[in-house]
Amino acid sequence: MEKTSIGLDENVAGLLCYVLGWVSGLILILVEKDNGFVRFHAMQSIIVFGTINVVGIVFGWIPVVGIVVGSLVGLLAFALWIVLMVKAYQGEMYKLPVAGDLAEKWLR
C-alpha cells in the first residue's frame, strides 16, 4: 500500500472519502494533491453523494411522491455508501458508470 501526502495508507484515505458523503470527499480532494487513487475516490464521492443530496432535497418538497422517492434514494445512498467504502478499502479503483467517468474526466 502506498502512503498519501497526508500520511495515510491510500486504501484508508480512499475509504475516508466516502465516510461523510460529499463532505469528506470535498475535504480529501482539497488536502490530497498527489495520490490519484484518493483523488479519484474523493471526486466520485462528491459527484455521487452531492447528486443524491440534491435529489433528496428537490423531491423532499413534493408531498406524497417525495416520501416514496426520498425513501428509495435513501436506500440507494446507503447501499452505495457501503459498497464504495468497502471497494476503496480493498484498494479497488471501483468506478460507478456515470460518476466514475466524470470523476476521471474532471481530474485530468
List keywords for this structure.
108 residues, mainly alpha
Quick overview:
The chain is an all-alpha fold and 108 residues long. 77% of the residues lie in helices and 0% in strands.
What does this structure look like?
- By secondary structure, this protein is mainly α.
- The chain has one domain.
- The protein is 77% helix and 0% strand.
- It is elongated and about 50 Å long.
- The mean pLDDT is 94.
Radius of gyration: 14 Å
SSE succession: HHHHH
Largest sheet: none
How many domain units? 1
Number of H- or I-type helical stretches = 5
Unreliable sequence segments: none
- What global shape is seen? elongated
Mean pLDDT: 94
- What structural category do the secondary elements indicate? mainly alpha
Layout of helices and strands:
Blueprint: H1 10-19, H2 22-31, H3 36-60, H4 63-89, H5 97-107
Helix pairs in contact: 1-2, 1-3, 1-4, 2-3, 3-4, 3-5
